[in-house]
Amino acid sequence: MRLDDTDDGFGHAHLPWGSCLLPGADAPALCTRVGDRVVDVAGAARAGLVPAWLAGPSVDVLLARRAADWGSARVAVHQLVVGDVPDRLVHDLADVVELLPFTVADYVDFYASEAHATNVGRLFRPDDDPLPAHWKHLPMGYHGRSGTVVVSSTDVVRPHGIRGADDVGPSERLDVELELGWVVGGPPTRLGRPVPIDAVEDHVLGVLLLDDWSARDLQAFEYRPLGPFLGKSFATSVAAWVTPMEALQDARVAPPAQRDPVPPDHLQGVADFGLDLDLELALSTPRMRAQGLHPHVVSRANAGRGLYWTIAQQLAHLTSNGATLRPGDLGGTGTISEVGEASAGSLLELSHDGSVPLELPTGERRTFLEDGDEAVLRGRSTDGSVTLAPVVGRVAPRA
Amino acid sequence: MRLDDTDDGFGHAHLPWGSCLLPGADAPALCTRVGDRVVDVAGAARAGLVPAWLAGPSVDVLLARRAADWGSARVAVHQLVVGDVPDRLVHDLADVVELLPFTVADYVDFYASEAHATNVGRLFRPDDDPLPAHWKHLPMGYHGRSGTVVVSSTDVVRPHGIRGADDVGPSERLDVELELGWVVGGPPTRLGRPVPIDAVEDHVLGVLLLDDWSARDLQAFEYRPLGPFLGKSFATSVAAWVTPMEALQDARVAPPAQRDPVPPDHLQGVADFGLDLDLELALSTPRMRAQGLHPHVVSRANAGRGLYWTIAQQLAHLTSNGATLRPGDLGGTGTISEVGEASAGSLLELSHDGSVPLELPTGERRTFLEDGDEAVLRGRSTDGSVTLAPVVGRVAPRA
After folding, report:
1. Full-prediction pTM beyond 0.95?
2. Which CATH architecture is the domain B17-99 placed in?
3. Which of A32, A179, A349, B118 is deepest in the core (most CB within 10 A)?
4. Inter-chain contact A168–B264, Cβ cutoff 8 Å?
């Protein structure tokens, strides 16, 4: 079968990695996709069409290898998909079950967008400077719960918890956070040996969209001084497909200028880069879906412009104290916002802390999410050549 | 071989679980110990002396099973060690390599000691109330880095990092935190389904001492508003042996009274308990070791009296928002301190934020740890029947 190149951002130059349960199969398979067709890479490996070590259930087999192998695997899969692919290795996307693409080791979420940090600071700490004094000295981050990272299309059960003194119940301020995730592979590093910033391509296989669901009421009550905990730990959704860093070569842009202050040496890379990716957040409600309406875009932001701290800086910071990396470590950039209206990656910001509802095409209004609402994250390179796989999550009430 | 009962707290009534590389073996084995003898439980399983499913490399095989199986395994291993144990299954503790006893899934650290939280609040936030206003409304916690949890006796490499604006270098305020860890087993729970507080014994296999190493200078600069990150993520040491909850039946005591405020319903257990364990922190320096001096005890605290929030409350809180548990999840109680001098679980507290050095038997003085210093955590039930395996960690300079 010939898999023609496509112009939907999933063409021959993209080749994202995923894990799918294929029709009739009883175990997951490492796959790639071209347009809306899924190619069984694990099956191709067993058939001797691509390297044998790709015969695995998920992206874990790539993450366990060195970066040089990611490149050779990509070349081999490219040769496969531009040729005549055996029919039995090709499936319609609609016929497969997309699974979590890799086993998450540690999950760290950063706070790397200046507009977002400023917006949140203004709302959560109105009496202080909106941007914490040390924010430009280091890429701030915290560890999240890796056990509750779920793949796109998994329902998100509304969290319950302590919303205030003597106030327990379902979160009434359930929010999304539009982020880029980055996926660590390669041999584990050694304790006490930081990863240099310019080694990022040896350690990051690729990126994917990430929705860091947040219960703002639980978060506001609990977060001082230990940071976000139950306000975030109930679910983090990631896309089903990891976009290789190699597929984003043309999307690289200069990182933001960092002059006041200049970051410390270990956060200055000679070849550091931002990613020129246009991202958007869309919402749909049950009524919208009943009327056949598509999700309504409520916000757009560009990752290159929105992120002050780059992925390489986040990685270098994470290991600068001597902490190790393991294959499967997942980083999140933090919510990506730009300055201006309708360009923030969370409802907290878009609704001005719940005070200005968003208008939807049905006439419905939303500050935070109601049961049945669906949030959709999308992204693509500004030249249109690469589309990031979406993240979709629907809010379900607790059973 | 007969393994006589011992009075060192590792007798027939304790039977902790661990993972060891035994002499001549090329793979780790699940083990228990009696006194200073290690018993090869995995080998006993292969020989048909205990259930076959115990033939594994680590405590992971227990964590994968339901709590009822933990009990039957304990009964079987007890029968083995009180009988005539085949010589080839018994090794001297000094001849084995103790490994990390289980694979850590998510690691969450709490902040459950009122005296500790009060002491730290006074030092870190002198202008506020020492205890955050919400501290008695919920057991505060945060996620730590599971990839840097190491077994006792692993050297701890001094972390480097950003100690302040334009101030990068090795931490000069390297500290320990004396904690109890609790180890989760049993089938994974379901998203959106909290674990009831009274189900703690279905989900917690046992406890072990835990040293949550902390770089106070990195922590102080970074921690607002996202909580501890690089100040903690460089290493967390745990003991090599997990003490089963069943071995601590006689150490149970009534939990602290919680009346102002009364906690929400889901944090009130009808059979909740504290653990009457006497803990201590000891230090040794290279000079002390050269003079043949034992580690010097600088602090003593009791877990039952020191912890306001119980392990069951920590577990229930962790899942109350709908977050899942997986086998291998590790909880830490947070530093255990009591009110009074020489009864705090960190040097930050003991040295009054570095202003009052501790005196050691050599005449040396310490506020925080110097390279070559060794911290030792020890614990035992107050009746002396059960000794917790120690945590030892020596500070090494970065290579």
Report:
1. yes
2. Roll (2.30)
3. A179
4. yes
